Structures are given as C-alpha cells and as structure tokens.
Amino acid sequence: MRHILSLNEAWRFHKEDQEEFEILNLPHTWNAVDGMDGGGDYWRGTGIYEKTLTRAELPRGERIYLEFRGANSSADVYVNGVRCAHHDGGYSAFRCEITHLLADEMTIRVEVNNAPNRTVYPQVADFTFYGGLYRQAFLIGLPQSHFDLTTNGTPGIHVTPTVEGKNGRARVKVYTTDRKPGQRIRYVLYSNGKEIASHVTDAETVDFLVKNVHLWDGKRDPHCYHVEADLLDGGEKLDNVGTHFGFRTFSVDPERGFLLNGREYPLRGVARHQDRIGFGNALLPEHHNEDIELIRELGATTIRLAHYQHDQYFYTLCDEAGLVIWAEIPYISQHMPEGRENTVSQMTELITQCYNHPSICFWGLSNEITMNSAEDPDLIVNHRILNNLVKKLDPIRLTTVAALSMCPMDATYLTIPDVVSYNHYFGWYGGDTDMNGPWLDKFHAKNPNIPIGVSEYGCEALNWHTSNPVQGDYTEEYQAHYHEELIRQLYTRPYIWATHCWNMFDFGADARAEGGENGQNHKGLVTIDRKYKKDAFYAYKAWLSDEPFVHICGKRYTDRVEDLTKVSVYSNQPEVELFANGESLGKLAAEDHFFYFSVPNVGETTLVAVAGDCRDESFLRKVDTFNEDYRMKEAGTILNWFDITEPEGRFSLNDKVGDIMGTLQGKLLMLSMVKKLLPKGKKGEKPTAAGFEINGDMMQMVAGFTLLRLLNMAGGMLDLKLTKEDLLELNRKLNRIKKPRK
Length: 742
Known about the structure:
By secondary structure, this protein is α+β, with helices and mostly antiparallel strands. It folds into 5 domains: 3-143, Sandwich (Jelly Rolls), CATH 2.60.120; 157-245, Sandwich (Immunoglobulin-like), CATH 2.60.40; 254-531, TIM Barrel; 559-628, Immunoglobulins (Immunoglobulin-like, Sandwich), CATH 2.60.40; 642-735, no CATH class. 19% of the residues lie in helices and 31% in strands. It has 12 helices and 42 strands. The longest helix is centred in the middle third of the chain and has 17 residues, at 377-393. The N and C termini lie far apart (80 Å). Residues 688-692 have low confidence and may be disordered.
C-alpha cells in the first residue's frame, strides 16, 4: 500500500551567498518581509534547502518518490549530490523517484531559484514573485506496481463527468506504472459516503452510469461524488487513488451570460492572490479556510484564481462551497518568445493536476499579454498552441483570456478562446466610472457572438478619508463610490458572462509606491491581514449575499468638519432607518441597496442603522479643522494635490487632462509638454509610452486623469526627472487659462 511521510519539518536553509544556515519548517518563502515592504528590491536568487534522513526514517515501499507541491520558480533536486529532478514553474506540484539513490543516510538538497530570466513565467507583473518551498513536501512509498505519480504531477486518476438527460455518466481513467499481467483494478463510486456502484476489471478506463444524477449546482447545491480505484494483485491491494468530482453542465451565451445546468447563473465575484502579511505566499490551511469564508460571506458566485495555479486545498474548498472558478497560468504582461515551452508545460500541469475539480469551468490562457502588441505573430501562434492544447487535454471546459484595456476590440487574439474578458479601470487609471457600461455595450454591439466579461476592475483604498472623494485620492470613500457605480453598471447587464472585482484582498507588489504604504496593491475589499473589511466589501455583500445585514459606512472616518454630512448605509434589506443619538432621521428604500442619509453633525453623535432585525452602530464627532491623519501623505512625492494653487475659474494640475485639452490654450500647453517628455520614435512609427501604443483608447483613459496624477505615474513609467519647481511652473501656466463657463 501507499505510505506518505511529511517532509515539512527541520530543513536547513541558506541563500546562495551565505554560509550560515537556519533551521525552518515548510511552507517557507524567503520574501515574506522584503516582498511587500516597497522599493522593488526584494531578494531574487537561489535559496538552498537541505534535510538529512536515514533509511529507517523512510516510508515503507519498494519505490520511493519525493513530492513538492510548490517551489518558486525553478527547482533542482539532489539526493547525496546526484540530481534527480529539474522543474520550471513555481505554482504546480512535481515529483521524482529516488529509489535508485537510497542509502543508509541521505541528504536531500533542493535549490530553488526565483531570479529573473527569459524562459519561465512570470517575469513582468504587478505582484511579488515570492521565492521558496512555499507549499508542503512529502516522501511517498509504493509497491513496484502502482498508480502513476510522475507524469505532469498527475493524481493518477481523472474523471470526466457528463450529463445525459436525468442521468450522469462518469468516465474514470487511471494511469499505472509497472503494472503486471493479472493485476486488476477495482473501481468504487460513492455518493454521500455510501457505495452506489463498483467494477472490477482489467481496464484502465471504465464508465459509471448514474441514474437520476445529483448535480453539482453551484452555491445552491455543491454536491460531489467520490470514486476510489484500487490496484489489486490477487487478494492484495497494492495501491489506491481517489478523487471527488461533480456532474454539471455549463455554457456561456453571448446574450444570457453563464448558464449552469441549463439555468442562468450570473457569475459575480472576485479575484484572489495567495499571500498575506507576515507569511508571503507560504500559506497554511487555516489561511485558505479564512479566505474562503470571507468570500462566502461576500456572497460571490465565482473566483478568478489569479495569476497562476493555486493550492489544491483551495480548489477543493471552492468545490465544496459551490464557487465557479477561472484557473489560469502566469502567461502575463510580456510575451517572451523563449518562454513558449514553459507556457505549454505550465498549462499541461494546471489541467492535469486540477482536472477533477468541478468548480473549475474556465482555463485562462493569458493576462494582459498584449501590453506591447496585440498583433505580435509569435504571440498569436503561442495562443493558438495553448488553446489547441487545452481542447486536447480537456474538451469540456471553456478557454478565456484577460485582455488589457487598450487591446483593440477587433484584435485577432480575441478570436482564439471561447470567451473573453477585459481588465478595465475606467474611474481609476484614467477615464471616468461612467465609461465602463458604455464601453461594454460598444464591444457587445461590435462583437455580438463573442461573450464578454470583466476580469479586473477596482481602485485602491487605505485608511484615508474625505467627505469629497475624487479619483486617485486613495480614500475608502472613493473606493466605495467607485464600486457602487461599477456594481450598478456591471450587475444590470445580463450579457456580461462574468465579473471579477480586483481584488478580494490587498496583496504584495513590492515595486508599488502608492497610497502612502509601499509594497502592496491596495485594491482589495479586505486588508492584506484579513482584519478589516473595507466599506466596498459590504456594497457587494448587499447585492450578492442572502444573509440579512446592515452596515454603516465610514466607521474609520469619525472627525468631520461639515455641519451636514453624508452617511451611506449598505443593506440587502428593502428599508433602512437611521437614528442619531436615538432620534430617527427617517426611513429610506433603495432598490440598489445603497441608502444615503444627510446627518446633522453637532458635537458627538451615535448613529444606529436598523434594517429588519439587523442593527449596526457608528460614531461621529464635529471638529473645526480637518483631521490631517485622514489625508494621504505619500513618502517621496514631489508635490501633493493639496499644495497646489487653484484660482477659481482657472485650471490647475488638479484638473483632468480631458478638460484641459478641451480648450485651445490648454491643448497647446499640453502638446508642447508631451513633445518634450515623450521619446522620439522612428519616422512612420506610432507614438508609444512605456511600451504602450498611444491610440484612441489610451487617450480616452488618460483624459480622466488629473494632470498631477498622470505626471506622477508617468514619472515612474518613463523615468521622467520632474522637480517640484517644474510642476509648480506648469501649474502657474495652467492658472492663467480660464475654464469654460458651464
């Protein structure tokens, strides 16, 4: 029989440039701290893990295998100095046999490397590429004949379930190693823990017909069946593999969106990264459990598990919760001609290892890969290869891509997958929030047969606050406003096959320097430590969750200067009543679940919101001057927005680029500035900035930025050396230009 030994404890670890080692347990990453402290300087290189075992400590078995469930991003495995495995791809499991290397004492050495290269994805992306053995490791002992372990990290058993009217058919295929004549396989099918069918046969593929099949039906009823396979030699059981799976049908209609088991089932949810403060990506089961519970509380029906293969444990949690999953490989941001083989191997491992999970309905081919060009011939070929590979390995599930916002609507690469989604940030990275719905309507009208979704949208929020939120201020209030607007536009268009808010949780992105706290992307609905649910979290809960609740926004925004202040309340109940110091301010009804109250701000006020049997409480305090603790102050910023002179009726750096360009004087000033800042291209070439082609879609986005925010962002992207004096001089020129009368 199969015997499994945990290898998680007591590894000796040191970096390649160090001699002294430390003793640690797996999972482990060496970037848990420097991978999210800012500066883009987290250590990338080779980390060395060593562990010595005696023969007596090995699991019983004629064949011994090593298993690593995650080593980022390339790994070489040695036993007593002999290399027995090399693996490229930091997010999938791999195994190697070490039977031929057994000795009375054995030193296992794993060299893990996350240094930059041109062959292994990802290399360019807005998240930290944590290095290390960040998932569990095991030794597996087996008899000579056993179920396969080494082909692409296979579980040794694959189940293909199909629905035929009221019945289901499960095709079970197993993979064996060194199987001898006469050895048979026993298959047993279970439902709710009870055996419902079995076969004993020589065949490595069998079909189970299940009458009146119980469907896996999303959150409504995530029922799973279970199948076991035993390798038999006479009356002896040599090895065993098993898996759960689910019967379901799904499709995407360009008009009706996602259909699960023949019924419309709107996919409205979030994206998730696999890291958190203090741990990096070396997560424990309790971390995964907490994440799934928070997503379930939100009421999501779907998760985009970005931008790589996640832990098998988390996919299982999604199966049990009934969440529809988009799983993908880290083919992201920058197409590397030398990386084609790696995209193929990572996609093969993703599908092979995750095939049995009923929650997975979509395989993602790439994310924002057209950043440099949407018509790169090699990129197009790579996508056709991947799409054909997916259809060969898994003809049932659908393929998709997450397209960069500036990708043209008629790009060839959008015709390759079954469905497409776009990453749009209108209202944050340029443009305005009200541009999102119309853009999708335009795409839908132009491409009526291509199902369209939104794979990313969001904006950043930290513990900054204001009563007058504006794009780019990083306040919790603007994030709440942004998501209110996006929910109204996205959730009321049934043709949108899926929406994935970016992101469920703040996550590590060491190169980021935004919002006053470097090293993180703060677009999460929940903070990176999972301790605080931002107000926007409750906006989604109001639309998606059936659990009755009421939430008063702005609990961290206590001190306010205005005499009459706006207080937003979110609830999935039809009516909310708000009390101030026990006095009712009235009842409001809101079909969009967002209730807005005007509250007199005098002295100290205790607010209580009541919706049905639900209550929530908050507190306000009247102050004479604005509390500067609420105002964002970015370290290293050349000029803050509140330091800029804004004469009434005149332009300033705080005005939007589109408004400035709408006047003749403003346009001339902007054109002269752009001419100085942008690098000169070759004659006939289209202008570019930081690798992006400057086309109509990009200009539409840029028009929504304030000029100050655009210049701050461009400073990092184009390495512009703007000084405070440069910006103040430009602001003085803008102050001379009159705004048009409204």
